[in-house]
Amino acid sequence: MLRLLDRLKDEIDGLDAQSLRRRRQIAETACAPEQTLTLAGATAPRTMLGFSSNDYLGLAAHPALAKALAEGAALYGTGSGGSHLILGHSRAHAQLEERLADWMSPFIPQARSLFFCTGYMANLAVLSALGGADAVIFSESLNHASLIDGARLAKARVERYPHCDVAALDAQLAACDAPVKLIVSDAVFSMDGNIAPVAELLALAERHDAWLVIDDAHGFGVLGATGRGVLQALSLRSERLVLVGTLGKAAGVSGAFVAAHRTVIDYLVQRARPYIFTTAAPPAVAHALLASLSLIEGEEGAERRARLRARIAQLRRGLKAVLPADGSAWLAESPTAIQPLIVGDNARAMRMMAQLDAHGLRVGAIRPPTVPAGTARLRIALSASHSEADVSRLLDALGEALAQPAKEAA
Fold first, then answer.
1. Domain range holding 73?
2. Residue 177, Ramachandran bin (φ over 0: left; ψ between -120 and 50: alpha; else beta)
3. Are 125 and 179 contained in the same domain?
4. CATH number of the domain that residue 347 is part of
5. What is the pTM of this model?
6. Do 276 and 306 fall within a single domain?
7. 178 and 271 fall within a common domain
8. pLDDT tens track for 86-130
């Protein structure tokens, strides 16, 4: 074998030894609480009850969205044919951007929006375009990888601030004399489920003449009276806000958007390389997203958010009753659909995931480097499509797994 291949194999073997190797599974059926999966290493598929999806409102397999996607394909075909600046920007894309700008206009004066293929691309675009050589990016220590990579791609200097530590950030901003400052944070932290102090961050942006870039990937569709996300939930409004919203999670389809003052959006169209030099998403996707927004803001969306809140409350009550008294596992403080059960040890997390698999339950084990060392966890993700019986079944299996001493599970 080539020496270069030997080096790669040695690194993969090292990941195995630390219980850090990632493995894929194959979804044989549509995204739903009960899904047929072929797990890594298995020879046959199994029907599993899943608690790993980011489909928080249960819209990913909604018949109305499937119908809208097919309708969009009939209208526009299967591909866009080019970038947004070279013939790839369809009427469906334009309508979606107009609708999203209208959604965000109560929170961002003169709001406009820009549609992207993924949230990862949107974050790369915003930070690389706004974070020039004369800028400093103040990045939350638990930010998503896409924000970290966007900051790396930018020419700006990057300073991290401690998780949700507004006082520390205030001091860092006060000591900075750069002409451009960007405060960058997730709205809902993807592995912890807690909500950033966005109102306080905005106050700092106002005080220190900075932009506030908020990635609302896990809040859009779920937070706020009509699902418009963290800005609606907190009743915030400012020209300094640059909001990234993901459309492949609670919205149930694919893609993402950036909403900001019209001048910011105009600038991104001219300078954001991940937008300029990539093929536009299929117009059918944008067409389906228009139907998704109608569901989210309507009566059905409100009902689904209420069901999701009920499942969150049920899970938290039940888990607190079975947590080990020795503190070897704990439930993170989270009011959102993301409910992390932290077990500490990588091997224990993998063992507990396997125990749940044996019960026909699929919950992802999250390990470093995605989370800090010593905080391996089961990331339980709830959906409006989960029933009370589904959550009870999960709680029974978790109680059994948690009853096993941590030293035996390691």
1. 63-297
2. alpha
3. yes
4. 3.90.1150.10
5. 0.94
6. no
7. yes
8. 999 999 999 999 999 999 999 999 999 999 999 999 999 999 999
